[in-house]
Amino acid sequence: MALYRRLVTDADFTEAMERQFRLRVYKDDHIVDSDGVIVRFDDNTVVSQSSVSDVAYHDRAACEFFEIRKR
């Protein structure tokens, strides 16, 4: 079973990026991205990557971000 923690602050995003936690992204109550890691982020955008050629850009204000940790 996995643990989910919502990412809200810059410190949350920095920790998830440095530790390379897997990410799940919701937009309008639908999963739009899953199992990627945060490559970079700023005040407006979070960039995640789940494979070499799969890079996604997410609007930070429009999406909800959760880190996935294994128990």
Please characterize this protein's 3D structure.
With 71 residues, the protein is mainly beta. The chain has a single domain (2-70), classed as SH3 type barrels, CATH 2.30.30. It has one helix spanning 10-19; strands at residues 2-7, 22-27, 30-41, 45-51, 54-59, 63-70. Strands 1-6-2-3-4-5 form a six-stranded antiparallel β-sheet, covered by helices on one side. The longest helix is centred in the N-terminal third of the chain and has 10 residues, at 10-19. The radius of gyration is 11 Å and the shape is globular. 18% of the residues are buried.
Question: What value does the Rg take, in angstroms?
Answer: 11 Å
Uncertain regions spanning at least 5 consecutive residues: none
**How many structural domains can be distinguished in the coordinates?**
1
Question: For this structure, what is the CATH class?
Answer: Mainly Beta
Can you tell me the CATH architecture? Roll
* CATH T-level topology: SH3 type barrels
Overall geometry: globular
Biggest beta sheet summary: 6 strands, antiparallel
Beta fraction: over 45%
SSE succession: EHEEEEE
Count of extended strands: 6
Mean pLDDT: 94
What order do the strands of the largest sheet run in, or round the barrel if closed? Answer: 1-6-2-3-4-5
Q: Termini separation (Å)?
A: 6 Å
Q: Helix content range of the residues, please?
A: 10-25%
Characteristics:
single chain, 71 residues, mainly beta, SH3 type barrels, six-stranded antiparallel sheet, 1 helix
Task: Describe the structure in brief.
This protein has 71 residues and is mainly β. The protein has 1 helix and 6 strands; from the N terminus they run βαβββββ. It has a single domain, classed as SH3 type barrels (Roll), CATH 2.30.30.
